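Researcher: Next entry in the queue.
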Amino acid sequence: METLDSTQTQTPSSSKPADPSLQNPSFTSPRQATPQSVTRLWRPAAQRNLRNQWSKLASYRKQWVSSSFSGRSHATSLVNAYLSQRYMHAMELGVLSDMPDIQKKACLKLLKQQELHRSKLLSSYKDMVAIVTHMINTIRSMRCYLKGTSSSPLVQFSSCSEHENDTGDCGGISVFAFWPISSFEKLAQELVQMFTLELNLKRVLVVELLSISCEEVPPVNGLCWSMELYGGEFDDLSICNLCSKETCEPVLPRLKGQKSVNPVVQCNHQPDHEVLQVYLTTWLAEVNVDTYRVDEIFSVVGEEMHVNLS
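Model: Structure for this entry, 310 residues:
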């Protein structure tokens, strides 16, 4: 069973990193001599590309916040509909008790509301999966490769390598003031790692919340951790390194800095109020996302690139 590899990169808030290799590009040995004419053209192309990719990451972060908020709202409505339906028969109806089938009709409406919010919760989760996959693809697009040959009259660059010995970082030289491309990639990986771990934790909550039911006997085809929640989910999770190649199932969830925990074999389809409150609080807390560190990363990168990423 595969688990995510945690990558923690510490970068001070100053625009001048403490790592000598980041302050002095000469610490990174060029893999191959690059013509000065190409280097002069490569740097502005790489700068434009990095600004674009980090602007995308900042946008995806905002989209995550929005989707997570929507997911929590739908989860809360789902829980409220379930609890109202579950305890309907124990409620004192007062003057409404004389109305025929009032409880039955109310439960039926609550059931429909539960189904609606279940669908919306799944949609929010699907959006968050898409956001993380976009983040990962953005990291893979940070390098700037020579298009064609350096001897061509028109020197062009792209995000795809056309030459086996082209690493896309111009031999490790600094792109702006101090950092080579690899330094931007490391910070981006640290950033995306937080959202990837949080996505996997939220999947646990989604599976549990989608499984709650007022039926005394759980359905035979009820949800479990190893099942796809929507068509093509495992393909998306594979991009996020959240699906095991050996078992073709999602990797075990874990908190940042800790080992994976055993998956839930069978969901509790009738959790009590306290358990559901913990689920909602956990969703809101986003324990794997260090908001302060996320802000710091965007701030430091923005200073290095001379752009505002907030």
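Model: The helical segments are 20-23, 36-86, 102-139, 181-211, 233-239, 273-285, 291-305.
Researcher: Noted, moving on.
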